[in-house]
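Lab meeting notes turned into a lecture example. A postdoc, R.K., suggested we walk through two folding results consecutively so the class can see how the record format repeats. The first protein's sequence and structure tokens come next.
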Amino acid sequence: IEWILAEAGATPAAYGFCTNGIWLDSLAKIGSGLVTTVALHSHSKEQTDLIMSKLKRVGDKYHIGVGSHWQIKDGAFILITHKEASKKSAIEYIQQKLSITKEETMGIGDMLNDLPLFEASGLKVAMGNGDQLLKDKADYISPSIDEDGVAVAIREYVL
């Protein structure tokens, strides 16, 4: 954790750690708990880009996902987890356990951290309010989350 924070430098607006399912905001509070996620917060796209440029070496050892910040319009959460802890790995695990194929899987997302999900999904659905890069990779663009886009996609393709 100290290495990740050192690599990020002073660029994140804030950070936190998920330890034993509880989010903490200080290294001193971690104790002997198992840290599963490090979250770096940004307040703007420029700040996110700067943080990501500083984390290049971290990306060789860990999985880095970028998601929208629900409280800050242009902000982001940069989540750092175990290398295999991605939405792609999770969906592939579920596919194996349920004996279903990629073609039988629909992935619905709105942010860049959903790109790995799309890699493992036969049908790729982007939310109308989602990131443009994700929309460019989608097979279908559903209405926004405020317009019940997930329900629309399920009604259209599952039911």
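The second example is placed directly after the first for contrast:
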Amino acid sequence: PWQLFSNALTSSANSIVGSSGLISKVYFPRLVAPIASVAATLVDFSISFVILLGLMAWYGLAPGIGVIALPFLIVLTLGTALALGLWTSALNVRYRDVQYLMPFIVQFWLFASPVAYSPSLIASPKWRIVYGLNPMAGVIQGFRWALLGAPAPTLLMVPGLVVTAALFVSGLYFFKRTEAGFADVI
């Protein structure tokens, strides 16, 4: 899930600037560019997921009943990437340095998410809720639960959903407000 998120976020951040020739010549809904770049990352994810399933079969690991939650977790991952991608793609049009800042943001977020460690290392339940404000913490733990039988991400999901919804609504508003000037700035 982390690769899906990081690739989707990075490609959506660069989607408007990367489509500058199209945006300055033809009018089309500019919201299509970040959505299409996020959706395109599903191809890489699908190939990786098939390889993961093959490796799980090779090692005799069978996913549990939680596997039915995977589509929701994938949508949440893409939704989080799109929400941030709306912000960063609009900011990248005006401030071109955003594209150079994105690898550092993604790298920092990698360490703030439980990719290489378990969220159970956060001892206090109060801090787990704060930690859950990172939407990817719940998603990554959800993938572990669905595929490997790890503990369910109950407390990590709710704050992450709220943050993703807030980022999406505010990002959509910001994007719509600034898209009229994209062709002039690009």
